[in-house]
Amino acid sequence: MIQDSETVDAFLARHASDVEETVRRAAALEIMPRWQRLAAHEIDQKAGPHDLVTDADRKAEQYLTEQLVALLPGSVVVGEEAVHANPASYEAIRGEVPVWIVDPVDGTRQFVHGETGFCTLVALALRGVVLASWTYAPAREQFATAIRGQGAFLAGERLHAGPPEPGRDLRVATSHPDYTTQEQKRALLGLWTKGVAPRACGSAGLEYLAVARGESDATVFSWEAAWDHAAGLLLVEEAGGTHLTRTGEPFRITGGNDLPFTAARDAATARQVAALLSGGAA
Fold it and tell me: Is the pTM of this model over 0.90?
């Protein structure tokens, strides 16, 4: 049973490229053949009309679960669709063995509508610390990776988010109001101020990638589901950014965060956005 970070580090040194190939195969076999070809019977609702799941989600997660556990014996998978079927399985994130955190199709709404703004997210974590991540947007032919302490990369080129350009409004992607509590709505109001240009977010994974690339200055999210955040948070960190909750603490994938929280391209921007969220909730 693999239980220490050094063993996981050794695994990543040997097999990070194998994980990337596994993610690519999942998309090629189960996702892209269904893109823009979904039949009505291949689409279902979970919590409501804005919470969709498709055969591509289910089949891709099943494929990734089988292949990733085979690559790293002793690991477990926490996938969005498996947790929907068995919420107790989410607890593995807080366990003592390596856990693969999987969102097979992040941006299912965009996928269902035949748009390109979706991706597959995979992260490898141990005891609540994300050690590696893979973000694949197959319709855009973009593949981003990160390993803790080794940088973030897109198509083999290192990502450096850098600070925003002085004098320009901060570009901030935010949670849609439909997915927020009344307290969170009040917090988000803090972003509607001079010097900030908020907009509704799309796929969480692609929003994180935009921050890591310096195309967006920050994101603000109001939910904790680790499959939406784990891969992107490490990507942003390794590109030089950071993440903070309203109380100024880093976001924890194990939960218990003061929401909403921000991930930003540099520490100063993260502090500025977190302060706006804190003031908006007062």
Answer: yes
